[in-house]
Amino acid sequence: MKPGRIVPASFYARDTELVAREMLGMLLQYRTERGTASGMIVETEAYVGEHDAACHAAAGLTTRTAPLYERAGIAYVYFIYGMYWCFNAVTRPSGQPSAALVRAIEPVEGIDLMRRRRPHARRDRDLTNGPGKLCMALGITGGVNGQSLQRGSLVIRDYAAISDSAVAVTPRIGIRHAADWPLRWLVRDNEFVSRG
DNA sequence: ATCCGGATCGCCT
DNA sequence: GGCGATCCGGATG
């Protein structure tokens, strides 16, 4: 399998549920001075707008949430629990501030670089099986917050096709509000999925 | 100025 | 399965 074309911004300007589903099988690729690392997206969640209490946009437009109000196809990277970064692709269906969180990837390029960035991972599956872990493995930090996912060092590319029969949908993980909404998508039986 | 909760992870039992 | 780490954004006074 070879990395394909960079996904255009128009892809992200649609319903977040659709974007989250179709991001499965795409390649998240980051180039840094240390080299290129990438992985196939195997788990995503949708955060669908101001009416979604679990979405950061529920707080309205603030310094932190500003990227969600800009445009589809840019990165929204936030810091959590004092230690970790999480990566989202901004979606803008009908102008709604929303995003798709990438929760897990399967390493494709630069696995040795990922191992160096994740010295405590005991097995390779522990490199990228969580939203904080994959950001560490790729080297993603707040420095790319708000950056284009078409023109910059961080891009999403076409990669593999995932059939509907290989996809499972569940409630989102680790949230308090709207915890029963089925807005998490994952590739069945993929060992890099964070849970379930 | 101060307080609190959080889209997590890794280590412990 | 439980808990501590560690800090930022937002809210309140």
What would you say this structure looks like, in words?
This protein has 196 residues and is an alpha+beta fold. It has a single domain, classed as Methylpurine-DNA glycosylase (MPG) (3-methyladenine DNA Glycosylase, Chain A, Roll). Helices cover 12% and strands 29% of the residues. It has three helices and eight strands. Strands 1, 2, 3, 4, 5, 6, 7 and 8 form an eight-stranded antiparallel β-sheet that branches. A hairpin with a 2-residue loop joins strand 1 and strand 2 (35-47). The longest helix is centred in the N-terminal third of the chain and has 8 residues, at 16-23. The protein is globular. The mean pLDDT is 96. The structure holds a DNA duplex (13 and 13 nucleotides).
For the structure shown, list the relevant keywords.
eight-stranded antiparallel beta sheet, 196 residues, single chain, alpha+beta, 3-methyladenine DNA Glycosylase, Chain A
Brief synopsis:
With 196 residues, this protein is α+β, with helices and mostly antiparallel strands. It is built from three helices and eight strands, in the order αβββββααβββ. The chain has one domain: 3-methyladenine DNA Glycosylase, Chain A, CATH 3.10.300.10.
